[in-house]
Amino acid sequence: MENVLVAGANGTTGKKIVALLNESQYFTPVAMVRKASQQAQFEKDNIATVLGDLEGDISHTVKDIDKAIFAAGSGGKKVKEVDEEGANKLVDASKSVHLKKFVMLSSMGADRPEQASDLKEYLKAKHNADVYLKESKLTYAIVRPGSLTNDKGSGKIKAASSLGQSGSISRDDVAQTLVRALHDDALTNATIEILEGDTLIGKALESVS
Q1: In which element (H, E) is residue 168 found?
Q2: In this protein, which residues make up the domain named NAD(P)-binding (predicted)?
Q3: In the annotation, is 26 catalytic?
Q4: For the whole model, what pTM was predicted?
Q5: Given 26, 122, 132, 140, which residue is catalytic?
Q6: Which residue of 47, 78, 150, 194 lies most exposed, with the fewest beta carbons within 10 A?
Q7: Cα 10 to Cα 14: distance, rounded to the nearest angstrom
Q8: Nearest CA to 34 among 16, 14, 19?
Q9: CATH assignment of 2-208, given 3.90.1300.10, 3.90.660.10, 1.10.3720.10, 3.40.50.720?
Q10: Which pLDDT score is estimated for 116?
């Protein structure tokens, strides 16, 4: 079993990621949360937690960790500090302990933030964080979903390095894709865009790996 640090574990998508990892036969989740008050919800299910604020020192959070998923977000409030610099800090910490893989939850449009009509600052932060990860020499996977919905997941998506269209996808299916991307045989040093679709997640990732 590999220990997987989930940054942003207390978020809507983060909680889904932690739950999937907790059911996995391959991975053990370690939920990274910002406040002590957020630990109990995970610990009642015997899920390990670690306190870490992306605006502070997080070097301790990667102790005994094998892989990481960055699913944190500032909700548009501190995009530079959290979405960009926080991600970069976790990349640096991951490099220091030679993490086996780093999976980044990014966003569709992060490859061309200057073309965005809204969310420009957010997409710019995500773009910079993605570039930083790519240049880090860590083994990585960058997943860029369309608009997130709270619909029930289907376990099926549409995926490509560039889809050339916009659309939406459920948080359930995004969480599943991120967990699948942790595997060594999925998305090695690759960036993909995902939307709701008709292809099973595992198959969809194979087609772009």
Answers
A1: strand 168-170
A2: 8-184
A3: no
A4: 0.95
A5: 122
A6: 150
A7: 6
A8: 14
A9: 3.40.50.720
A10: 66
